[in-house]
Amino acid sequence: MLTLDTQLFYALNSLAGQSPLLDGVIVFFATYLAYLLILLFLAFAFFRHSPKREKWELLLVAGASAIIARFGVAELIRFFYHHPRPFAELPGVHALFTDNAWSFPSGHATFFFALSTAVYLYNKKWGIGFFVAAILVTAGRVAAGVHYPSDILGGALIGIIVACAVYAVACKVMIKMSTRG
User: Fold this and answer.
1) Domain regions of the chain by residue span
2) Is the dihedral of CA 56, 105, 144, 15 positive or negative?
3) Which of 21, 54, 65, 95 could disulfide-link 145, Cβ–Cβ 3.0 to 4.6 Å?
4) Is the pLDDT of residue 181 over 70?
């Protein structure tokens, strides 16, 4: 009997291998959309109408959140918990590309949900767009056969929690700085 996680994985992964066009869309979402999202974030941060100090605060909070979530928390978990990728342990997986790292938590999910949360905390409208893009990136990685849905959920929760914590610390620091000067 398959777990819900495995059933959801197979449901999304069944989209792979249906047509070269659909495979191209999945690979675009799973890999290349991430680069566009970073460029969009930089454009949002630098060209939005806000004081220079707030732009730098957004860059610092978003950057710290994404880096701590992805290269701190996610890597620490992967150091202790070794969960194989679906293409490495399940039969009949349509892997559109492979990855050598452990599967849980998804590094892409931790990074892009942290980034999306930081953007949301500064601008709700743009934040929702970033969350939609993060969902497309991570759903593409499940469809491509490199992550389970639980990898994405775990990474998303880590990213959101880390971004909220970094934002809270940044707010306290900014309050202390404003009362001194």
Assistant:
1) 4-180
2) negative
3) 95
4) no
